[in-house]
Write a structure and sequence with these properties.
It is built from ten helices and 15 strands. By secondary structure, the chain is an alpha+beta fold. α3 packs across α4 and α7 packs parallel to α8. The chain binds coenzyme A. The site of coenzyme A has 20 residues, from α2, α6, α7 and β14.
Length: 341
Protein backbone atom coordinates (compact mmCIF):
# COMPACT_ATOMS: atom_id res chain seq x y z
CA UNK A 1 0.00 0.00 0.00
CA UNK A 2 1.32 3.45 -0.92
CA UNK A 3 1.36 5.79 2.04
CA UNK A 4 0.67 9.52 1.97
CA UNK A 5 0.12 12.21 4.57
CA UNK A 6 -2.86 14.48 5.14
CA UNK A 7 -3.66 17.41 7.42
CA UNK A 8 -6.30 16.57 10.02
CA UNK A 9 -6.03 19.56 12.33
CA UNK A 10 -4.80 23.15 12.47
CA UNK A 11 -4.27 25.50 15.41
CA UNK A 12 -2.65 28.82 16.20
CA UNK A 13 -1.99 31.27 18.99
CA UNK A 14 -1.09 34.93 19.24
CA UNK A 15 0.02 36.34 22.60
CA UNK A 16 -2.49 38.71 24.21
CA UNK A 17 -0.41 41.89 23.95
CA UNK A 18 -1.31 43.59 20.66
CA UNK A 19 0.72 46.61 19.60
CA UNK A 20 -0.58 48.78 16.77
CA UNK A 21 1.72 50.69 14.43
CA UNK A 22 0.77 53.94 16.16
CA UNK A 23 1.55 52.52 19.60
CA UNK A 24 4.92 51.25 18.35
CA UNK A 25 5.64 54.58 16.64
CA UNK A 26 4.87 56.39 19.92
CA UNK A 27 7.22 54.07 21.86
CA UNK A 28 10.01 54.52 19.31
CA UNK A 29 9.51 58.31 19.30
CA UNK A 30 10.39 58.33 23.02
CA UNK A 31 13.84 57.04 21.98
CA UNK A 32 14.11 59.61 19.20
CA UNK A 33 13.36 57.09 16.43
CA UNK A 34 10.94 58.24 13.80
CA UNK A 35 8.43 56.02 12.04
CA UNK A 36 4.72 56.14 11.23
CA UNK A 37 1.69 53.99 10.68
CA UNK A 38 1.60 55.28 7.11
CA UNK A 39 5.21 54.18 6.38
CA UNK A 40 4.76 50.72 7.91
CA UNK A 41 1.42 50.01 6.19
CA UNK A 42 2.53 51.26 2.80
CA UNK A 43 5.87 49.36 2.82
CA UNK A 44 4.74 46.12 4.45
CA UNK A 45 0.95 45.90 4.85
CA UNK A 46 1.39 45.45 8.61
CA UNK A 47 -1.02 47.23 10.98
CA UNK A 48 -0.28 45.49 14.28
CA UNK A 49 1.80 42.76 15.87
CA UNK A 50 1.60 40.72 19.07
CA UNK A 51 4.41 40.54 21.61
CA UNK A 52 4.84 37.73 24.13
CA UNK A 53 5.14 38.51 27.83
CA UNK A 54 8.71 38.24 29.19
CA UNK A 55 7.96 34.87 30.80
CA UNK A 56 6.44 33.41 27.60
CA UNK A 57 8.81 31.37 25.47
CA UNK A 58 8.34 29.86 22.01
CA UNK A 59 7.35 26.56 23.62
CA UNK A 60 4.49 28.26 25.54
CA UNK A 61 3.05 29.71 22.34
CA UNK A 62 3.64 26.39 20.54
CA UNK A 63 1.81 24.37 23.19
CA UNK A 64 -1.40 26.39 22.83
CA UNK A 65 -1.32 26.21 19.02
CA UNK A 66 -0.61 22.46 19.26
CA UNK A 67 -3.47 21.85 21.69
CA UNK A 68 -5.87 23.60 19.31
CA UNK A 69 -4.63 21.53 16.35
CA UNK A 70 -4.90 18.31 18.38
CA UNK A 71 -8.44 19.23 19.43
CA UNK A 72 -9.47 19.68 15.79
CA UNK A 73 -7.73 16.43 14.86
CA UNK A 74 -9.47 14.69 17.78
CA UNK A 75 -6.19 13.23 18.96
CA UNK A 76 -4.55 13.09 22.38
CA UNK A 77 -0.92 14.23 22.82
CA UNK A 78 0.26 10.65 23.29
CA UNK A 79 -1.18 9.73 19.87
CA UNK A 80 1.61 11.85 18.36
CA UNK A 81 4.77 9.89 17.53
CA UNK A 82 6.85 12.77 16.16
CA UNK A 83 7.01 16.50 16.85
CA UNK A 84 8.86 18.70 14.36
CA UNK A 85 9.14 22.29 15.50
CA UNK A 86 10.45 25.12 13.36
CA UNK A 87 11.81 28.16 15.17
CA UNK A 88 14.59 30.71 14.98
CA UNK A 89 13.87 31.81 18.53
CA UNK A 90 14.14 28.54 20.46
CA UNK A 91 13.68 28.42 24.23
CA UNK A 92 17.39 28.08 24.89
CA UNK A 93 20.41 30.05 23.74
CA UNK A 94 22.56 27.35 22.17
CA UNK A 95 19.39 25.64 20.92
CA UNK A 96 19.26 22.68 23.29
CA UNK A 97 17.34 20.97 24.67
CA UNK A 98 15.24 21.43 21.56
CA UNK A 99 12.03 23.43 21.88
CA UNK A 100 10.26 20.37 20.43
CA UNK A 101 11.33 18.38 23.51
CA UNK A 102 10.10 21.15 25.83
CA UNK A 103 6.77 21.17 23.98
CA UNK A 104 6.57 17.38 24.35
CA UNK A 105 7.02 17.77 28.11
CA UNK A 106 4.52 20.64 28.40
CA UNK A 107 1.90 18.67 26.44
CA UNK A 108 2.31 15.89 29.03
CA UNK A 109 3.52 13.35 26.49
CA UNK A 110 5.07 10.19 27.90
CA UNK A 111 5.02 7.87 24.86
CA UNK A 112 8.70 8.30 23.92
CA UNK A 113 7.79 9.63 20.48
CA UNK A 114 10.50 11.54 18.64
CA UNK A 115 10.89 15.32 18.84
CA UNK A 116 13.21 17.60 16.91
CA UNK A 117 13.65 21.24 15.90
CA UNK A 118 14.32 22.35 12.36
CA UNK A 119 15.98 25.64 11.42
CA UNK A 120 15.12 27.27 8.13
CA UNK A 121 14.01 30.67 9.48
CA UNK A 122 10.85 31.87 7.69
CA UNK A 123 10.85 28.75 5.48
CA UNK A 124 10.95 26.62 8.64
CA UNK A 125 7.33 25.55 8.44
CA UNK A 126 7.47 24.30 4.84
CA UNK A 127 10.74 22.52 5.68
CA UNK A 128 9.06 20.92 8.70
CA UNK A 129 5.96 19.84 6.76
CA UNK A 130 8.10 18.38 3.97
CA UNK A 131 10.16 16.45 6.52
CA UNK A 132 7.05 15.16 8.29
CA UNK A 133 5.52 14.12 4.96
CA UNK A 134 8.67 12.17 4.06
CA UNK A 135 8.68 10.35 7.42
CA UNK A 136 5.01 9.42 7.05
CA UNK A 137 5.37 8.26 3.44
CA UNK A 138 8.34 6.12 4.47
CA UNK A 139 6.13 4.45 7.08
CA UNK A 140 8.41 5.61 9.90
CA UNK A 141 5.91 7.84 11.74
CA UNK A 142 2.11 7.94 11.72
CA UNK A 143 0.86 11.05 13.53
CA UNK A 144 3.13 14.08 13.32
CA UNK A 145 2.66 17.41 15.04
CA UNK A 146 4.29 20.15 12.96
CA UNK A 147 4.72 23.50 14.68
CA UNK A 148 6.11 26.91 13.83
CA UNK A 149 6.65 29.05 16.93
CA UNK A 150 8.50 32.30 17.45
CA UNK A 151 9.21 35.03 19.96
CA UNK A 152 10.89 37.23 17.37
CA UNK A 153 10.53 40.28 19.63
CA UNK A 154 13.50 38.88 21.62
CA UNK A 155 15.88 39.34 18.67
CA UNK A 156 14.59 42.72 17.49
CA UNK A 157 16.74 45.79 17.92
CA UNK A 158 14.21 48.48 18.81
CA UNK A 159 16.79 51.09 17.79
CA UNK A 160 16.70 49.78 14.19
CA UNK A 161 13.51 51.07 12.59
CA UNK A 162 14.20 49.19 9.35
CA UNK A 163 13.55 45.85 11.09
CA UNK A 164 11.74 46.28 14.43
CA UNK A 165 8.47 47.41 12.87
CA UNK A 166 8.17 44.31 10.67
CA UNK A 167 8.13 41.33 13.05
CA UNK A 168 5.98 39.81 15.79
CA UNK A 169 5.45 36.75 17.99
CA UNK A 170 3.09 33.81 17.48
CA UNK A 171 2.67 30.11 16.82
CA UNK A 172 0.84 27.83 14.43
CA UNK A 173 0.53 24.06 14.23
CA UNK A 174 -0.89 21.26 12.13
CA UNK A 175 -1.37 17.54 12.67
CA UNK A 176 -0.38 15.31 9.77
CA UNK A 177 -1.43 11.69 9.69
CA UNK A 178 -0.80 8.68 7.46
CA UNK A 179 -3.39 8.18 4.75
CA UNK A 180 -4.12 5.98 1.76
CA UNK A 181 -5.23 9.11 -0.15
CA UNK A 182 -2.71 11.88 -0.85
CA UNK A 183 -3.29 15.03 1.16
CA UNK A 184 0.19 16.48 0.68
CA UNK A 185 0.47 16.45 -3.12
CA UNK A 186 3.96 17.89 -3.58
CA UNK A 187 6.81 19.43 -1.63
CA UNK A 188 9.81 21.33 -2.94
CA UNK A 189 12.63 22.81 -0.87
CA UNK A 190 15.64 24.93 -1.78
CA UNK A 191 18.50 26.83 -0.16
CA UNK A 192 21.33 29.04 -1.32
CA UNK A 193 23.86 29.61 1.44
CA UNK A 194 25.71 32.17 -0.63
CA UNK A 195 23.09 34.69 0.55
CA UNK A 196 23.44 33.81 4.25
CA UNK A 197 24.47 37.34 5.22
CA UNK A 198 21.38 39.24 4.01
CA UNK A 199 19.18 38.04 6.88
CA UNK A 200 20.87 36.80 10.03
CA UNK A 201 21.45 37.03 13.76
CA UNK A 202 25.23 37.21 13.55
CA UNK A 203 26.18 36.15 17.06
CA UNK A 204 27.30 32.96 18.77
CA UNK A 205 27.93 31.66 22.29
CA UNK A 206 31.59 32.13 23.17
CA UNK A 207 33.10 31.18 26.51
CA UNK A 208 29.96 31.98 28.47
CA UNK A 209 29.31 35.24 26.62
CA UNK A 210 27.98 36.35 23.28
CA UNK A 211 30.35 36.95 20.40
CA UNK A 212 28.77 39.22 17.80
CA UNK A 213 25.19 40.47 17.82
CA UNK A 214 22.06 38.82 19.20
CA UNK A 215 19.86 41.10 17.06
CA UNK A 216 18.31 40.38 13.70
CA UNK A 217 20.14 42.09 10.83
CA UNK A 218 18.50 42.40 7.43
CA UNK A 219 19.28 43.88 4.06
CA UNK A 220 15.60 44.51 3.32
CA UNK A 221 15.83 45.40 -0.37
CA UNK A 222 18.10 42.39 -1.11
CA UNK A 223 15.69 40.04 0.71
CA UNK A 224 12.77 41.57 -1.15
CA UNK A 225 14.36 41.03 -4.55
CA UNK A 226 15.35 37.41 -3.89
CA UNK A 227 12.00 36.51 -2.30
CA UNK A 228 9.98 37.75 -5.25
CA UNK A 229 12.09 35.84 -7.76
CA UNK A 230 12.14 32.45 -6.00
CA UNK A 231 8.53 32.21 -4.80
CA UNK A 232 6.95 32.07 -8.23
CA UNK A 233 9.50 29.51 -9.43
CA UNK A 234 9.09 27.12 -6.51
CA UNK A 235 5.29 27.25 -6.74
CA UNK A 236 5.54 26.15 -10.38
CA UNK A 237 7.92 23.36 -9.40
CA UNK A 238 5.45 22.03 -6.83
CA UNK A 239 2.57 22.28 -9.32
CA UNK A 240 4.60 20.44 -11.93
CA UNK A 241 5.42 17.69 -9.43
CA UNK A 242 1.69 17.24 -8.77
CA UNK A 243 0.89 17.54 -12.47
CA UNK A 244 -1.38 20.48 -11.77
CA UNK A 245 -1.74 24.08 -12.94
CA UNK A 246 -2.11 27.28 -10.94
CA UNK A 247 -5.83 27.53 -11.83
CA UNK A 248 -6.34 24.46 -9.65
CA UNK A 249 -5.12 26.29 -6.54
CA UNK A 250 -8.07 27.28 -4.35
CA UNK A 251 -5.97 29.18 -1.80
CA UNK A 252 -2.47 30.60 -1.72
CA UNK A 253 -1.14 30.72 1.85
CA UNK A 254 2.23 32.41 1.52
CA UNK A 255 4.69 33.35 4.25
CA UNK A 256 3.18 36.45 5.84
CA UNK A 257 6.13 38.85 5.70
CA UNK A 258 5.20 41.65 3.42
CA UNK A 259 2.02 42.27 1.42
CA UNK A 260 4.02 43.56 -1.54
CA UNK A 261 5.99 40.29 -1.84
CA UNK A 262 2.81 38.27 -1.36
CA UNK A 263 0.76 40.20 -3.93
CA UNK A 264 3.55 40.07 -6.47
CA UNK A 265 3.75 36.27 -6.10
CA UNK A 266 -0.02 35.86 -6.48
CA UNK A 267 0.02 38.06 -9.57
CA UNK A 268 2.89 36.14 -11.16
CA UNK A 269 0.98 32.90 -10.54
CA UNK A 270 -2.09 34.42 -12.17
CA UNK A 271 -4.11 34.14 -8.96
CA UNK A 272 -6.66 36.83 -8.03
CA UNK A 273 -6.08 38.62 -4.71
CA UNK A 274 -9.23 36.98 -3.28
CA UNK A 275 -7.51 33.58 -3.46
CA UNK A 276 -4.68 34.63 -1.16
CA UNK A 277 -4.96 34.37 2.62
CA UNK A 278 -3.62 37.55 4.23
CA UNK A 279 -3.09 37.85 7.98
CA UNK A 280 0.21 39.78 7.95
CA UNK A 281 -1.75 42.97 8.69
CA UNK A 282 -2.76 41.52 12.06
CA UNK A 283 0.51 39.99 13.29
CA UNK A 284 3.45 41.12 11.15
CA UNK A 285 6.15 38.67 10.18
CA UNK A 286 6.10 35.81 12.69
CA UNK A 287 8.71 33.85 10.72
CA UNK A 288 8.15 30.06 10.96
CA UNK A 289 4.76 30.62 12.61
CA UNK A 290 3.26 32.75 9.87
CA UNK A 291 2.09 30.10 7.39
CA UNK A 292 0.35 27.83 9.92
CA UNK A 293 -1.16 30.92 11.56
CA UNK A 294 -2.66 32.09 8.29
CA UNK A 295 -3.74 28.56 7.38
CA UNK A 296 -5.52 28.13 10.71
CA UNK A 297 -7.29 31.49 10.45
CA UNK A 298 -8.69 30.61 7.02
CA UNK A 299 -9.66 27.07 8.03
CA UNK A 300 -11.49 28.30 11.13
CA UNK A 301 -13.30 31.18 9.43
CA UNK A 302 -14.58 28.77 6.79
CA UNK A 303 -12.66 30.09 3.78
CA UNK A 304 -10.54 26.96 3.34
CA UNK A 305 -12.95 24.09 2.97
CA UNK A 306 -12.49 20.35 3.10
CA UNK A 307 -11.03 18.93 -0.15
CA UNK A 308 -9.79 22.31 -1.41
CA UNK A 309 -6.23 22.70 -2.71
CA UNK A 310 -3.83 24.98 -0.85
CA UNK A 311 -0.38 26.19 -1.90
CA UNK A 312 1.83 27.12 1.04
CA UNK A 313 5.08 28.94 0.33
CA UNK A 314 7.92 30.04 2.57
CA UNK A 315 11.01 32.13 2.05
CA UNK A 316 13.62 33.39 4.47
CA UNK A 317 17.09 33.52 5.94
CA UNK A 318 19.68 31.06 4.85
CA UNK A 319 18.65 31.86 2.11
CA UNK A 320 15.89 29.23 2.10
CA UNK A 321 12.61 28.76 0.28
CA UNK A 322 10.07 26.09 -0.45
CA UNK A 323 6.50 25.17 -1.30
CA UNK A 324 4.01 22.58 -0.15
CA UNK A 325 0.89 21.80 -2.19
CA UNK A 326 -1.89 20.16 -0.17
CA UNK A 327 -5.38 18.86 -0.71
CA UNK A 328 -7.19 19.54 2.56
CA UNK A 329 -8.97 16.19 2.49
CA UNK A 330 -8.28 15.37 6.13
CA UNK A 331 -10.12 18.33 7.63
CA UNK A 332 -13.18 17.58 9.71
CA UNK A 333 -16.52 18.89 8.39
CA UNK A 334 -16.82 22.69 8.67
CA UNK A 335 -18.78 24.63 11.17
CA UNK A 336 -17.71 23.78 14.68
CA UNK A 337 -14.27 25.35 15.05
CA UNK A 338 -13.44 28.17 17.43
CA UNK A 339 -12.19 31.28 15.57
CA UNK A 340 -8.43 31.74 15.45
CA UNK A 341 -8.04 35.51 15.79
C1 LIG B 1 12.32 46.50 4.64
C2 LIG B 1 11.49 47.13 3.55
C3 LIG B 1 10.03 47.26 4.02
C4 LIG B 1 12.04 48.52 3.27
O1 LIG B 1 11.28 49.13 2.26
P1 LIG B 1 11.98 49.93 1.08
O2 LIG B 1 10.93 50.53 0.25
O3 LIG B 1 12.94 48.96 0.44
O4 LIG B 1 12.71 51.03 1.87
P2 LIG B 1 14.26 51.40 1.92
O5 LIG B 1 15.00 50.36 2.68
O6 LIG B 1 14.70 51.70 0.51
O7 LIG B 1 14.18 52.70 2.75
C5 LIG B 1 13.45 53.81 2.28
C6 LIG B 1 13.53 54.92 3.30
O8 LIG B 1 12.68 54.60 4.41
C7 LIG B 1 13.39 54.77 5.63
N1 LIG B 1 12.88 53.86 6.63
C8 LIG B 1 13.29 52.63 6.91
N2 LIG B 1 12.54 52.11 7.91
C9 LIG B 1 11.64 53.05 8.25
C10 LIG B 1 10.61 53.11 9.19
N3 LIG B 1 10.32 52.07 10.01
N4 LIG B 1 9.87 54.23 9.26
C11 LIG B 1 10.12 55.29 8.46
N5 LIG B 1 11.10 55.28 7.55
C12 LIG B 1 11.85 54.18 7.44
C13 LIG B 1 14.84 54.46 5.25
O9 LIG B 1 15.72 55.03 6.18
C14 LIG B 1 14.92 55.09 3.87
O10 LIG B 1 15.13 56.47 4.02
P3 LIG B 1 16.16 57.25 3.07
O11 LIG B 1 15.59 57.06 1.69
O12 LIG B 1 16.07 58.62 3.58
O13 LIG B 1 17.45 56.57 3.27
C15 LIG B 1 11.55 46.32 2.24
O14 LIG B 1 12.85 46.31 1.74
C16 LIG B 1 11.11 44.90 2.45
O15 LIG B 1 9.93 44.66 2.62
N6 LIG B 1 12.04 43.93 2.41
C17 LIG B 1 11.73 42.55 2.67
C18 LIG B 1 11.62 42.36 4.15
C19 LIG B 1 11.07 41.02 4.50
O16 LIG B 1 9.98 40.71 4.14
N7 LIG B 1 11.88 40.28 5.25
C20 LIG B 1 11.55 39.00 5.73
C21 LIG B 1 11.56 38.01 4.64
S1 LIG B 1 11.47 36.46 5.31
Amino acid sequence: MTLYSKIIGTGSYLPAKRVTNQQLADQLAEQGIETSDEWIVSRSGISARHFAEPEQKSSDLAVIAAQRALEMAQLQPNDIDLIILASSTPDFFGSFPSTACIVQKKLGMTNHGAAVDVQAVCSGFVYAVSTADAFIRAGVHKNVLVIGAEVFSRILDFKDRTTCVLFGDGAGAIVLTASEQPGVLATKLHADGRHSDILSVPGAPDGGALAGSAFLHMDGPAVFKLAVSVLEKVAHEALEQANMSSEQIDWLVPHQANIRIMSSTAKKLGLPAEKMVVTVDQHGNTSAASIPLALDVAVRDGRIKKDQTVMMEGVGGGFTWGAVLVKMNGLPEQGDFKAAL
